[in-house]
## 1
Amino acid sequence: GQQVMQIPQYQHVQEGEDFTTYCNSSTTLSNIQWYKQRPGGHPVFLIQLVKSGEVKKQKRLTFQFGEAKKNSSLHITATQTTDVGTYFCWGDSWGKLQFGAGTQVVVTP
Amino acid sequence: DGGITQSPKYLFRKEGQNVTLSCEQNLNHDAMYWYRQDPGQGLRLIYYSQIVNDFQKGDIAEGYSVSREKKESFPLTVTSAQKNPTAFYLCASSIVVRAPGELFFGEGSRLTVL
């Protein structure tokens, strides 16, 4: 069956550094979404990518959808303490919906 | 303000008891979902509903039941058949299931079985 894999599972980042988290699917995705969950909170929508090769930016966050629509990445530049949380990708494989396991981000001041 | 309301936020249950978690939305969304989250893990889909009086099993439906008698409401019952029910339960909604767009989440219900 379809699987959406996220790597890394944990990411320790020094404040000011950049990092990237990846989401890989075994099947083609019609679209992919990214969510952020702060500790103790609920997931909050960040962005949706639909087109092959699509790149979208939100301030220090850059989201990319692969050409084959099987993978996606989230890149954060100049990490801040407010970036702490778990980042999930959510893939829609033509009606089959699945969250990745998430990347838990810890920021060291 | 539009949104999703889950209750209760915290719930304690003795083994062998059924418990029902409430989820209400005023976003006029057709689709509603229930997810389970265990510590340090991702979200696993329990059930989802695309329309009133219809719902489908997700990946981990065993030991759970749902109903969708009204568009705004999608309660989840955790039955005594669920072997490991202690978890954080999240309800979500979207405009539709196919090409759903953004998922809106409630604040969650944390269930602990004593």
## 2
Amino acid sequence: TQLLEQSPQFLSIQEGENLTVYCNSSSVFSSLQWYRQEPGEGPVLLVTVVTGGEVKKLKRLTFQFGDARKDSSLHITAAQPGDTGLYLCAGAGSGGGADGLTFGKGTHLIIQP
Amino acid sequence: KAGVTQTPRYLIKTRGQQVTLSCSPISGHRSVSWYQQTPGQGLQFLFEYFSETQRNKGNFPGRFSGRQFSNSRSEMNVSTLELGDSALYLCASSLYGPRAQPQHFGDGTRLSIL
């Protein structure tokens, strides 16, 4: 069974601060996706990383996939209240064939004005 | 382009009853996956359908079942409901599957068991 551990579970910071969310596993994933979910809505895909060591930037968000494809991080620079939400990482297995995604339990992020 | 539509948005049932949830994927998407989201366990994979066939199944009891129709719309059924089945049920669609393809989620069905 592949597991994804996200840390921290909860994070509350002031507007303008920087933060990093981590997603770790002992398993190798063929790809890893990051989602953001707001109350009453479904998760929305932010980015997919596929190659070990890959770094992707989405405005103030920087995503990194570990060299061994077992972990990932999300760094937010100068956080804004609009960044508030539940951040989820999800890994796709490295085995052959179709399979579902394994989700971490998420990081609840609150950015206070 | 219309997104993923889930109906109903809210449901209240009692123990022992059964329930059917519906998911209409984005037009052209052939893969539909179902997930259960609870505060304690997070998002857990239920099953995935592709071209009317169940391709993969998560670790849930047989009370949870699903199907997909020729137009790619999918339904999920839960029989003999238990209190622990209270959750947000999400479906997600993609072109070919949930691995490297972007998945598009609906806003879910909130199921409450009394």
